[in-house]
Amino acid sequence: MKKKAFAVVLTLLLWLGAFSAYAVLAAPTNDGSGESTPLEVPAEGLAFENGTIYGIRKAWFQEVNPDKNDLFLSVTIPAAIDGQPVTNIAFEAFTTAYTSEKKAKNAVTYNDKLGLFYLTAADFTNAVHLKTIQKQAFNNSAYLAGTVDLSNTALISIDKMAFQNCTKLTEVLLPDTLESLGAAEGGSVFKGCTALTSVRTKNDPADTAFSLPAQLKYIGTDTFNGAFARPVTVVLPESVIGIGSQAFYSNQVTRIVVTSETPPTAFYSGSGSEWLSGQVNTRALKVSGADMVLFPNAAVYEAYYNNYSGLTSEKNKFTFPITVRFLNEGGESVLETQSKLYNFPLNYVFAGDWAQDDGYRFPQINEAETQWFIDGNSNALKETDRLKSSPIQDTFELVPEVKTVVIPENPSVVPILDGERLAEGQNTITVGDDRIHSFGVLVEHALLEPPQNPAEGDLYVTFQYKWTDVVDGSVGPRSGGAGGWPEKEFGAFGPYNTIPIDGTAHARIDSGDYYLVEIEGYVLRYDGSEWVKDEKPYYKTKHTIIGGDNSGATVDRAYVFYVDVAETFSITYTDGLDEDLFADQVYDGLFPGDETPAFAGECRRDGYVFYGWTPAVTDTVSGDAVYTATWEADVNGNGVADKDEETYTVTYTDGVDGEEIFPDQVFDGLLAGLDVPAFEGTPMRDGYVFAGWNPEPADKVQASAIHTAVWKADVNGNGIPDEDEETYTVTYTDGVDGEEIFPDQVFDGLLVGLDVPAFEGTPMRDGYTFTGWSPEAGGTVSGDIVFTAQWKQDAPDDTSEGDTSEDSSSTPVSPESSEPFDPSDSSEPAASSGASESGTPSTGGGGIGAAALTLLCSAGILLQFIVRGRRKQAAE
């Protein structure tokens, strides 16, 4: 039972999986949710009745879009629905616009609020019975893309605005049955279809840009106005008899060719629909970008020209082929016949199509310089001249004049900016907003200056310039646009080969903005008496003005320039000292990314070295910058910043141990090569003179050094080292001949000014009294000197024995000598019975007194010892 249940479950799961896979595989890929997945509308999805499709059937739309979303649809127009041929597509059929007719036929409109739809493709392959697409049937179908192939249909008319503004539509194939583009209400069938690259029939080559069916009769107003994505040449079939206003007014239409050789039956003006009755609007062939409107003959040209109501410049693009016969000299035979265009430059030639050939030259007779004239006209023709006549004719005969006429070579033209040449051919420049710039062209030619002594036939050339300011494709303010007043360089030919560019207001870089300069060169020829200027320029460039006449241009070149005015910056180099060393160097007009200009010259400053810029100079410019020079001291002038050098110390010291004569003077941070700093002040020391330094200071600092003061004694304080002075001797002598009372006392090495040394001791001489020195001792040393002792003999002692009184006026003399006795005399006299042991002369009672005194002193001393001894014993 369990196995059976398992088998049932397994079978159910497999069945569900298979069903899911089938459901996935069967899911529609195009569900209408996006532009790339449009939902195909089946025949039953079309609101159809009596051969007319009115739009998308409401019931079907509700069924497929229950959520009322906006859907993207593609439609196939069938040959028949329910057996009834489809012959007509109704007004606004495939838009969601409301019409009462659509409402009545149950076609979807925006009023139904069922959601909107956007058509992405329409297939007419099977619509073989379709004869009419009514107005606005696909109007503003912005998603209708690619090709709409109507070639299998039986269309006779595509009505007003049927495909207007289908901006993704790239190709339309028209059926051979088509007779009308537009209807009574108007044209604009393909107006605004800006992506169109081809409008053709099935039988045209696939690369055909424009071709209309051979049975087409009517082209309504604005049918191709603003259409096409690439340049096209519109060729109107001979069958076309009615054309509405501005049917081909598109800047992509470069040429219109009318093939019908029969003039229109009638012209009309205004915006009516007379074109449906075979008339041509007076502005039917108005174009904005065409170079010509080509008619088959003079009659058709004249009809269109005389009835055209547009600008004269537009009428001047009308032309038709003419025959030009170049006659031989004498005018009796034809040298050559050429096809040209009426009122168009003669250098237009036909080679499968008409085109201007700058290399075209008139025929020359016998290879000689030949000028050609209209018979009866004295002005020689140029290849850029036009032939026209009144009345209009289609054949012209030109007669020759064979002579030598020198035509100078064309000049060289190069752009210049602020007087500097730019690359030849450069037409885009960028200038800075820092100042007024001068921009223009430099025209160079070998014959710009007239000869100093001209002869007949000599020539020179001169050039003039006309500038045009173009903004948004129109005349700009510098040329007087918008009611302004033109600047002197603009609007007329003059000598101004350059114009000023002053700020962003003069920039012309956006689309449609530019400067145009036209250049004319004239030849001046010397006729023997004066210079005569040619009537026409030999050199003339083209312009770009819409509707302007370029027929006189001799070269196929227009000089158009685009000027951008960009923000610029300045770089300044300053010395940082208010320009005391050098003036600021300023570089203006620099663009971001430019290489930063270097400082020009050298940075020098006395006593300093240049130490770089602050901030550091960047490689490229990114904004305004001021670079300030930085300086570092270079006191010794060796080109190296002092702070980067080794320094030294010089010390002055007194050299005296244990005593400070003066504080050390220390000079540190000294640089090599500088002067050695001197000692500040004067070294002084009591009793000495300063005698220099050891070692002697050098003139310049070479290394650290200690200089010790050298001192020399100066006892006498006269500022002269004692060792450098003369010395003197002072001598004391007893002055006694033949006898030495005392040895001479000699003081030598004495300096001037010192005190005279005193005699050491007391001069004494027996029997004499010392009375002084001769000369008198004292004072200061001033030279060698000898002081001699002076003596006075003592008086004899006349007192009686026992009389102890002394006569102070008497000079004692020895008993044996009559000489006075010198008490200081240390010499021992001869012993006598009357002298004591001491050698002192004895005079009676004098000796006894002395002895008594001695005895008394001795007794006193003995008594002291005895007393001290007893005190000691008592103390013990």
How would you characterize the overall build of this protein?
With about 900 residues, the protein is mainly beta. It has six domains: about 175-310; about 320-400; about 410-565, Immunoglobulin-like, CATH 2.60.40; about 570-645, Listeria-Bacteroides repeat domain (Immunoglobulin-like); about 645-720, Listeria-Bacteroides repeat domain (Immunoglobulin-like, Sandwich); about 725-830, Roll (Ubiquitin-like (UB roll)). Helix content is about 10%, strand content about 30%. Strands 2-3-7-9-11-13-15-17 form an eight-stranded mixed beta sheet. Strands 31, 33, 34, 36, 37, 38 and 39 form a seven-stranded mixed beta sheet that branches. It is elongated. The relative contact order is 0.03. Mean pLDDT is about 90; it is low at about 1-15, about 20-25, about 800-850 and about 870-875.
